[in-house]
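Query structure, 393 C-alpha cells:
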C-alpha cells in the first residue's frame, strides 16, 4: 500500500456548479384564499348568532384511528393520552393571552422529571435546532444504530483480512482524511461503511485498501459540500488503483449496503450529550479524541455509537473536572454510569498503550494546537486511568 504518498500534495477540486434558471409555467387557475385566524374567529361568532354548527347534516366526525396501541402516524396512544391530559390541565391553568413559546416551555416541563433540566428551553426560537422534534429524532437514531449495527468479530468470515490489517488501513485513512481537510463526520462514516461492507462481503487482501478508499469516496460525497475527485484518491494510492477500479468498487459497496448510509455516528450523539452535561470545549475535544482513538480498535467496533459517545464524555468529565454523570445526562443519553463503565475501562487501556503504539495517526493529530493538544495533557497519565484500566484485566 502506498502509505508514503500521504506527504505528497493533493489537488482537491473546489469548482461550484453554475446555477440553472428554469422557466416557470404560468398557472391560470385562481388560487384559493387561505382563511386567516381572524376569519375563523368571525365565522365562529357568526355561527353563534345564526345557530349553525359548521357541520353538514348527517356528517360524522372521525375519531383518531388507534390499533394495537399505535395511532396511524406511529405514535404511542398512551403518549398521546398523556399529552391530552397535560394539554387539558394547561387549558385550565394557562390564561388565553399566553405566548406560544411559554406554552411550549410549560408543556415540556410537565413531561420532564423534576430532576432533569430542559436543555432545549433556550432554543425555542431557533428553527434550525427543531426543539419540537429533537428528542424524537434522537430516539429514531437509536433505532437506526440497532438496524445498521456492526457485529462483534465481524471479520470472522474473511479468510485473508485480520483485525490488525483493518487497524493499519484506518490509521492510514485518518492521515488521508487530515490531508484532504475533510469534515469529522466523513471519517466516522468512512469507517462505518468499511466495517458494514466487510461484515457482508468477502474481500481479498490485495483489495482492502481499495475498499477503504472507496468508502471514503462515498462518505465524502455524502457529507462534504466539495468532495475530492476520484482522481485525487487514485493519486493518494500512488496509482495502485485506477479510476475505473474505484468507481466499480463504489458501485459494489453501495449495492451491498442497499444505499443505506444513514447509520448514526458517535459524533452526532456526543454533541447532544455535551449540551446536556454543559461540557466545555476541553471536555468535548477530549471525548472526541477518545472516540477517534477507538476507531482502529477491532475489539470496540461493535459498540453502539450512542454508548461510545456517552462513555467518552463520561470519562472526559471525570478526568478534567471530576464531574458526575447527572440525571439530566442519564435522561438524554439513556445510559446509567454503571452501564458505561466497561467502555470507559477500554478507553483507559487505549490511552495507556497509545504513547508506545505503532499506529500514531490519531494521537499525533490531536497533539496539534488545532485540537488544543489534547492528547498531551497530563490528566491522561493520572492514577484514575491506571486504576480503571487494571479493573478491566
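Result returned for the query:
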Amino acid at each position: 500500500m502506498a502509505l508514503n504518498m500521504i506527504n505528497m500534495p493533493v489537488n482537491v477540486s473546489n469548482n461550484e456548479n453554475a446555477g440553472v434558471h428554469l422557466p416557470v409555467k404560468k398557472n391560470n387557475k385562481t388560487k384559493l384564499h387561505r382563511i386567516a385566524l381572524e376569519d375563523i374567529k368571525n365565522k365562529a361568532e357568526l355561527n353563534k348568532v345564526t345557530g349553525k354548527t359548521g357541520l353538514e347534516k348527517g356528517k360524522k366526525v372521525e375519531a383518531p384511528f388507534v390499533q394495537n396501541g399505535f395511532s396511524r402516524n406511529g405514535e404511542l396512544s398512551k403518549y398521546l393520552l398523556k399529552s391530552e391530559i397535560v394539554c387539558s390541565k394547561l387549558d385550565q391553568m394557562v390564561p388565553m393571552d399566553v405566548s406560544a413559546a411559554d406554552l411550549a416551555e410549560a408543556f415540556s416541563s410537565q413531561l420532564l422529571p423534576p430532576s432533569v433540566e430542559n436543555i432545549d428551553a433556550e432554543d425555542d426560537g431557533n428553527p434550525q435546532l427543531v426543539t419540537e422534534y429533537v428528542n424524537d429524532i434522537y430516539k429514531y437514531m437509536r433505532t437506526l444504530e440497532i438496524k445498521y449495527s456492526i457485529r462483534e468479530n465481524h471479520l470472522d468470515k474473511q479468510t485473508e483480512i485480520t483485525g490488525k490489517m483493518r487497524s493499519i488501513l484506518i490509521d492510514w485513512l485518518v492521515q488521508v482524511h487530515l490531508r484532504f481537510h475533510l469534515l469529522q463526520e466523513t471519517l466516522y462514516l468512512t469507517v462505518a461503511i468499511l466495517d458494514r461492507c466487510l461484515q457482508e462481503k468477502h474481500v481479498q487482501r490485495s483489495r482492502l485498501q481499495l475498499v477503504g478508499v472507496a468508502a471514503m469516496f462515498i462518505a465524502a460525497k455524502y457529507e462534504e459540500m466539495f468532495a475530492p475527485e476520484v482522481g485525487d484518491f487514485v493519486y493518494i494510492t500512488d496509482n495502485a488503483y485506477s479510476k475505473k477500479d474505484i468507481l466499480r468498487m463504489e458501485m459494489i459497496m453501495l449495492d451491498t449496503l442497499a444505499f443505506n448510509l444513514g447509520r448514526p455516528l458517535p459524533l452526532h450523539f456526543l454533541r447532544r450529550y455535551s449540551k446536556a452535561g454543559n461540557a466545555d470545549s476541553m471536555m468535548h475535544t477530549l471525548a472526541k479524541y477518545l472516540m477517534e482513538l477507538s476507531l482502529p480498535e477491532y475489539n470496540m467496533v461493535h459498540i453502539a455509537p450512542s454508548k461510545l459517545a456517552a462513555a467518552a464524555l463520561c470519562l472526559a468529565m471525570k478526568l478534567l473536572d471530576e464531574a458526575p454523570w447527572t440525571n439530566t445526562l442519564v435522561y438524554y443519553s439513556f445510559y446509567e454510569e454503571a452501564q458505561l463503565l466497561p467502555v470507559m475501562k477500554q478507553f483507559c487501556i487505549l490511552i495507556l498503550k497509545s504513547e508506545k503504539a505503532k499506529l500514531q495517526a490519531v494521537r499525533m493529530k490531536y497533539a496539534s494546537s488545532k485540537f488544543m493538544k489534547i492528547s498531551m495533557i497530563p490528566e491522561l497519565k493520572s492514577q484514575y486511568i491506571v486504576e480503571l484500566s487494571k479493573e478491566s484485566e
